[in-house]
Amino acid sequence: MSGNRELPDEAAKRTTSELSANLSKGNSSTDGAPLDGGVELASEARDVIARQLRKAYDARLNEPVPDKFAKLLEALSKGDGS
Amino acid sequence: MTNVEPDIRNELTALLPNLRAFSNSLTRNRDLADDLVQETLIKAWKNQDRFIPGSNLKAWLFTILRNTYLTHLRRRKFEAEDVNGELVQQLSVEASQGAHMDLIDFSEALARLPREQREAILLVGAEGFSHEDAALMCGCAVGTMKSRVNRARNKLSEILGLQDADGGESSSLSATITQHLVQP
Description:
The structure holds 2 protein chains of 2 kinds. Chain A is mostly helical. In chain A, 56% of the residues lie in helices and 0% in strands. The longest helix of chain A has 19 residues, at 43-61. By secondary structure, chain B is mainly α. Helix content of chain B is 68%, strand content 0%. Chain B has helices at 5-27, 30-46, 57-76, 86-96, 106-111, 115-126, 131-138, 142-159, 173-182. The termini of chain B are far apart. The relative contact order of chain B is 0.11. At the A-B interface, helix 1, helix 2, helix 3 and helix 4 of A face helix 1, helix 2, helix 3, helix 5 and helix 6 of B.
């Protein structure tokens, strides 16, 4: 595990190209052979998928968080969250 | 309670959007997703002494949430997901018959992936975890995680019509890519 704690908005600020690169890291095995997972996509197709994934996920990340979670954490901090 | 609590509480609060986004994307059920997040918070709070300060809190929380979801699936015995990929194949045929990315919402395409592939591409592609961290979180080998991500990406490409069934670029790929790359 990495040692740094990443804040949520930091992930949200990642660019599509960074995440596309993250996806591409696992694109082949160490000997360069394609992974067991099918053919290797064209970089343009990977970029489209990364962009659409980012867009869809960002929409969920930006949804307002219901108050019930803050209330739950408050209850837990008071020791009555069981 | 210790003086560490305010920090943990603040960090849990800060990570709520990520937990909800992952839970919603994984379950495709808002009520269940929020129940899982709630249960994750309670488990994390009660077991915070097990968390190693300085390690990755987000990865720890996501692991709790994922395990809670798997427990829920086993308990309910309703993993009526596309285990064999039959639905994906069906959708791929539809895509190759001329379906355009506009006609198939990306979230819907994501929902058509088998659960393991969906969580793999969410963790690595959306949340930005390394393959190594994602593998640890899912209890599998790094190579397995890489394969899951690759399969997920290929299936998404098929469903969205970016790739023909034989793996070649679809005839509409260039137009589709151009359209989506120029969008803000």
